[in-house]
Amino acid sequence: MSTVDPRTRLLLEAPIGRTLLRLAVPNVIVMVAQAAVGLIETYFVGKLGTDALAGMALVFPIVMLMQMTSAGAMGGGIASAIARALGGGRRADADALVLHAVVVALGFGAVFTLALLLGGRWLYTLMGGTGASLEAALAYSHWVFAGAVLVWLFNSLAAVIRGTGNMTVPANVTVAGVVLLIPLSPLLIFGWGPMPGLGIAGGAIALLLYYLLGTLALLAYLRSPRSLLKVSLTGVTLRWPLFRDILRVGLLGAVSTVATNLAIGIATALAGQFGPSAIAGYGTASRLEYLLVPLVFGFGAPLLAMVGTCIGAGQRERALRATWVGAAMAFGLTEAIGLAAALFPRPWLLLFGNDPAMLEAGTHYLHAVGPFYGFFGVGLVLYFASQGAGRLYWPVVGNLARLVVAGLGGWLALRWSGNLTSVFVAQGVALVVYGTVIASAIAGGAWFGRVGWPRTPRALMQRFRSA
């Protein structure tokens, strides 16, 4: 172990709980900063009027899908592959994986660009866009997705660095970019002095400049002596096994990402049968779940790096101990937030409006689902840990099970009771199924062989202790 880099040694030997907490703080900062990017842009675009804001709202779900796929799904595949290569002492493979990650980013970025430039009008019309709001959506979308490659490169290079156990550099670059975006966004949207205002397109251009400068900063770090990886974008032979190492985790992660958003979309459609206020109430309340994602990611990213490094080094028991420590942290955090929201729903809902029907629907949702947010936290953090292990079968199964319970269960509940609250109860049950399926599979040995389900509670406790 004397030749192991100190950062890798930290993941293999340092106390698990303290190390996860120390590495989680920069990640939480990153996610808060990235959330601030969207809020800043939305705030300034809103000054252009309702049509501009509606146009941006049409594009936002597709931008979020790209973000979640590039940073969480494929980014997790990249970080996992690098962590396992470093843990296994395969430094040459780890170095080569950087170029493979760049190629993956370029490919998927091009797919998003072509899909939205060619099919954007059809998609936004299908989503309800008409007139001036549709034109605003197209103006914003054409610019954002013309530069989709920049978003993919930024998130992929950040994942490369996180895979080495370094959470600080991506955090610093992200925060610096947000500081730059605060004056740049209104400057390009509204203009100043001789510079004309570009309207909603200015917001998109400001966002792309943020990703361009961030990508250059991350690339400069990877080419510097401070980087753990010795990066060369030339003279590296592309190899299918390295692509496979990224894609077998990233593509399955993408399935989970789509399933998560489909579950929320189906619940929105079911709530829509009770009118616009019900949609607004559910949408407002369920935003809290989206906010839990970056908080759990704060623990999930370092857990991914630790699990991947430990498994690469053959330390299976430490990888499992780290997994359950991370799961306990995520459960405690998300359950506390969920219980607080269930007990005191109105302070959160009043941030977005005061329509009585909206408040009533949102309150019913938080009462029914909030107490089960801990299971969502467990399932999500175990998804990240499974990325580190390179074993995503059961997280995908858990997500699909959630989709079935939320969709089919919600539809049946609505048919049998005609009550919106019963639809929300189905969403809460779906979260329990999601977390329980994944946790049970990992406890049953899914990472290292067939799932041997414990037959008694005592056997289950023994399995958890041995993990």
Topology summary:
Blueprint: H1 6-13, H2 16-46, H3 50-87, H4 91-126, H5 131-146, H6 148-163, H7 168-190, E1 191-192, E2 195-196, H8 200-222, H9 240-272, H10 276-312, H11 316-343, H12 345-349, H13 356-369, H14 373-389, H15 393-417, H16 420-443, H17 457-466
Helix pairs in contact: 2-7, 2-10, 3-4, 3-5, 3-6, 3-9, 3-10, 3-14, 4-5, 4-6, 5-8, 6-8, 7-8, 9-10, 9-15, 10-11, 10-13, 10-14, 11-13, 11-14, 13-16, 14-16, 15-16
Describe the structure in your own words.
With 467 residues, the protein is mainly α. The chain folds into 2 domains: 6-238, no CATH class; 264-466, no CATH class. Helices cover 82% and strands 1% of the residues. It has 17 helices and 2 strands. The chain has helices at 6-13, 16-46, 50-87, 91-126, 131-146, 148-163, 168-190, 200-222, 240-272, 276-312, 316-343, 345-349, 356-369, 373-389, 393-417, 420-443, 457-466, and strands at 191-192, 195-196. A two-stranded antiparallel sheet has the order 1-2. The longest helix has 38 residues, at 50-87. The chain is globular. The chain starts with 5 loop residues before the first helix and ends with a helix. Mean pLDDT is 83; it is low at 463-467. Keywords: Cell membrane, Membrane, Transmembrane, Transmembrane helix, Transport. The chain crosses the membrane at residues 20-40, 52-85, 97-120, 140-161, 173-192, 198-222, 249-271, 291-312, 324-344, 364-385, 392-412, 424-448. GO terms for molecular function: antiporter activity; xenobiotic transmembrane transporter activity. It comes from Variovorax guangxiensis. Pfam families: MatE.
